[in-house]
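R.M. (postdoc): so does anyone remember the format we settled on? I'll just put the structure tokens first.
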């Protein structure tokens, strides 16, 4: 049964105070950071600081924005509480990554400085371990949320909507597939390569087991986009879907590359890790990006997301539900930024009063995304009919 948002996390009515908030956006020149910057600079009530290691890239981004922004040359691994105080930050967003092997220096600095913290992390251990800061974050009266992105923030908002009132959940599946022409950041690629071929703990057939990262490959229908290959990804949803919804059968998070050639190529390369011939694929990130760039003219620039649930409704009747999102051309990379954008608005408006540290689940409803989905022209569909089954390869 879907867990409820704690009472302390319920949102109050907007009470915008008119005070301005200084927002430090770390990793601003990255694939997702720059798109988040484009949106925040148009939000009233914020003074935006673009932070990162590459000052020329930050300056180039600043010139493209349709609003004022400052620049701070900072490395996310070396930002301290003194830096946040010096800049006058009241909120920091980490969009840099990769988070798979990241430390918590920026989280600790934010809490020490009394600054709210949000990140777009998809690293399983990073997001799950953010709870270690809950006690001190509550004491400092700050909000620390990890995973304010497609997973787990959006995926859980969708499942909360799909399974509201259900008696039991048996199976959960979340899948994403970017278009081949979408920009590829080294951080995202490095994250995938960090677990490809390695054992990933996943809940299947009613029990915890392991399967190879970028394994369990199958074809999945993405409404509005057609069928695409998807494979197992190590994200926090592998833990959080089981923790929050307690499915009896399975809970999987899958992702894919639009072009079969690239998807199968990565699956083949991951076999070298699986068989112990290579310790990891991460040394080959730059080579993989170079090869993928040669195929940029193929495929399309539309990505999609699918969430599927099976179980029993409140009357005990078998039920399946399917939600899908197909991005408008060129606008897929904005999807991972929308949870952070929603949280920023709620903090500004006094709606989000929850304080502490934890994964970003149960705090956003699907309605918090729907206005931006409409603004970007995304094709969102929800249905109760049984979806087409996937085909194992």
């Amino acid at each position: 049964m879907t867990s409820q948002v704690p009472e302390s996390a319920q949102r109050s009515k907007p009470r915008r105070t008119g005070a301005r908030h200084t927002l430090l956006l770390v990793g601003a020149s990255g694939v997702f950071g720059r798109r988040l910057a484009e949106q925040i600079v148009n939000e009233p009530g914020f003074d935006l600081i673009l932070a990162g290691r590459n000052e020329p890239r930050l300056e180039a981004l600043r010139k493209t924005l349709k609003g004022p922004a400052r620049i701070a040359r900072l490395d996310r691994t070396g930002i301290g509480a003194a830096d946040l105080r010096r800049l006058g930050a009241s909120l920091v967003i980490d969009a840099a990554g990769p988070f798979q092997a990241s430390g918590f220096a920026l989280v600790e600095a934010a809490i020490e400085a009394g600054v709210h913290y949000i990140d777009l992390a998809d690293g399983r251990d990073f997001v799950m371990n953010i709870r270690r800061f809950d006690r001190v974050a509550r004491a400092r009266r700050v909000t620390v949320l990890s995973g304010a992105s497609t997973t787990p923030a959006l995926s859980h908002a969708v499942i909360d909507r799909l399974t509201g009132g259900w008696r039991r959940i048996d199976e959960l599946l979340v899948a994403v597939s970017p278009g081949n022409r979408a920009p590829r950041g080294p951080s995202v690629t490095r994250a995938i390569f960090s677990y490809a071929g390695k054992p990933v703990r996943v809940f299947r057939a009613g029990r915890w087991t392991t399967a190879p990262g970028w394994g369990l490959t199958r074809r999945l229908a993405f409404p509005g986009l057609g069928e695409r290959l998807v494979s197992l990804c190590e994200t926090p949803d592998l833990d959080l879907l089981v923790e929050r919804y307690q499915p009896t059968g399975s809970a999987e998070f899958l992702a894919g590359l639009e072009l079969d050639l690239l998807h199968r190529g990565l699956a083949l390369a991951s076999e070298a890790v699986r068989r112990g011939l290579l310790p990891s694929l991460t040394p080959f990130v730059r080579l993989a990006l170079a090869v993928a760039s040669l195929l940029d003219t193929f495929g399309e620039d539309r990505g999609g997301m699918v969430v599927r649930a099976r179980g029993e409704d409140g009357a005990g009747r078998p039920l399946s539900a399917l939600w899908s999102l197909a991005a408008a051309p060129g606008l897929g990379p904005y999807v991972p930024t929308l949870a952070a954008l929603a949280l920023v608005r709620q903090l500004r408006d006094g709606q989000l009063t929850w304080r502490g540290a934890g994964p970003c689940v149960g705090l956003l409803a699907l309605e918090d995304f729907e206005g931006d989905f409409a603004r970007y022209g995304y094709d969102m569909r929800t249905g109760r009919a049984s979806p087409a089954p996937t085909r194992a390869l």
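R.M.: ...and that's the designed sequence above, right after the tokens. Also worth knowing: The longest helix spans residues 260-274. The longest strand covers residues 168-177.
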